[in-house]
Amino acid sequence: MNIKTIKQLAMTLVLALTSTFAFAGTGVDATHPFTVCASTGFKLNATVSSGTADHYAWFEDGSVASGTTGTLAVASTAPTSITQHIYKVVAYSVAGCPSDTQTIYVKIIPALAFTSNTPDAICAANSNTAVASSTTTLTATRGASPTDADLTALGISVSWGTWGAVSPTIIAPTTSSNGVSTVVTPVAGTYNYSFSSSYSGIDVAPSGGCVSNTLNAQITVSPIPVLGTTGIAAN
Length: 235
Description:
Layout: E1 13-15, E2 34-37, E3 42-45, E4 55-60, E5 63-65, E6 71-74, E7 83-92, E8 102-109, E9 114-116, E10 122-123, E11 135-142, H1 148-153, E12 157-159, E13 164-167, E14 174-175, E15 180-184, E16 189-195, E17 198-200, E18 215-222
Parallel strand pairs: 2-8, 10-18
Antiparallel strand pairs: 1-3, 3-6, 4-5, 4-7, 7-8, 9-11, 11-15, 12-17, 13-16, 14-15, 16-18
């Protein structure tokens, strides 16, 4: 007896760490795909609404995907632009009778990539020279892809991170919304800072996820030279 037509396969994206989240999109068509961060592997789950499935067949972009159970595990990828994949699944009865084919659309969003400037070495404060403090700027610059227009079309925006003081932590930067920080450094020494950012509007991890690469920057604050004695000598 043929397995009954599957009117709706229950598709749920599940993180590899077995925690389930409400991924953006429905996955039912190209206009409403599931949106997934490229750095996050995911699982597609298929169950039958009637009848009994003995095994499943999965396809990714027209090619057979490995997996004969109701779960297809997809590894993380590293695309440089937004890419869309089309998955298909068929359930088979013990006699080999197929169900209708169901299609799932998944759009892969590359993690944000940033580069930083090389901050200038600056001078420490010195009461003898009336230098109260010196400043330098740390800048995080986004890569060209994905663009704001591409992200907005998917209901995704960039949640800019901040430059944080790593060591020592006594000098905290003041940060604007676009990854630029001004650091006031009155004491001679070496200071380390880090920066990362993420998306908002896309659920890919417990804390909001799809975190960018981490930038690290170091600022060197030079001590002010102090003159000792002066004198005169013959040539």
